[in-house]
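re: ur msg from earlier - yeah i can do the iron/sulfur cluster complex, just paste it... oh wait u already did. ok heres what im feeding in:
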Amino acid sequence: MSDSNSNSSLPVVSCEGCGVCCFHMGFPAFVVPREPMTEQQIDADPELRKLPADSIRRAELLAGHEGESWWHRLPAELKEPLVEHMSQYRQPDYDGTLESFDGPCIWLDMGTRLCKHHLHRPNVCRDFETGCGDCLQWRKEYADKIDV
Ligand code: SF4
Ligand code: SF4
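and the outut:
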């Protein structure tokens, strides 16, 4: 546990006892491989057909994705249960409250508030820097739940 986190006037340098930015992920947000879709497949989907013809999202669906490198490096013993979890996951109905977002990431250790598989975490988690503006905002939202 870092003493640095216990004084809000000092920079945040440790995630131990915090973990609040992982409270609403549901599961590690890897970019997984996706086959390219056709325009016909997009237009057959009641939600996707609302995408404007020139939207970035539609272009991404048409292009498909080979998946991020961390996904391909993920050991089978982690990937298999994660694929199972992702296939069954249902996002809660959002009612405007923090509590109605996705639940804690399944890789978050609620005891230490650290990632159980830190070495295997996805790009989005690697890009989120301890002490950045969004980190400080999450810590402010959950000040009463940070155990440092
Ligand atoms: S909110 Fe900041 S300090 Fe807390 S776990 Fe996330 S990155 Fe670490
Ligand atoms: S993979 Fe690890 S760092 Fe990323 S959201 Fe889940 S617990 Fe947090």
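cool cool. The chain is about 30% helix and 5% strand. ping me if u need the other ligands too
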